Amino acid sequence: MAGAGNSMVGSILLFTVVLLLQEVYRGKLASSEMLTILGGFTSSLLFFIGNFQESSSLKSSWGTGNDSCGNDSTVHRVCITTCFLFSAGLLYEMNKISGYMLSKADSKSRRQ
């Protein structure tokens, strides 16, 4: 399993690459409705990556999930709304997966 330092470096690199690609293609993302929705989805991925980074044992205030939807304001105002919607969906699904994994671990510990 990867250590906390490796996970943090990986998440910082992934966050930076996705953010830079979003800023480079800012004009293209704002050019049509579907690409605007894609811009919101990429920012929700930034939200997810930022939260993953913050949940590792090495805490930093760089790249928090809250910054990701704020970066959408440089692309298009609809991107902010879609970012919040996609982020809420991602959080809901991650909560379901976490609850499933936790209940699975509890049932294994009860058997022993």
Provide an overview of this structure:
With 112 residues, the protein is an all-alpha fold. The protein is elongated. The chain has 5 helices and no strands. Helix 3 packs antiparallel against helix 4 and helix 4 runs antiparallel to helix 5. Its main location: membrane. Keywords: Membrane, Transmembrane, Transmembrane helix. It is found in: Membrane. InterPro entries: KRTCAP2.
Question: With helices defined by DSSP (H or I, 4 residues minimum), what is the helix count?
Answer: 5
Fraction in helix: over 70%
**Oligomeric organization of the protein chains:** single chain
Largest sheet: none
Number of domains: 1
Mean pLDDT: 79
Based on secondary structure, the structural category is mainly alpha
Main location: membrane
Membrane topology: Multi-pass membrane protein
Keywords: Membrane, Transmembrane, Transmembrane helix
Family: Belongs to the KRTCAP2 family.
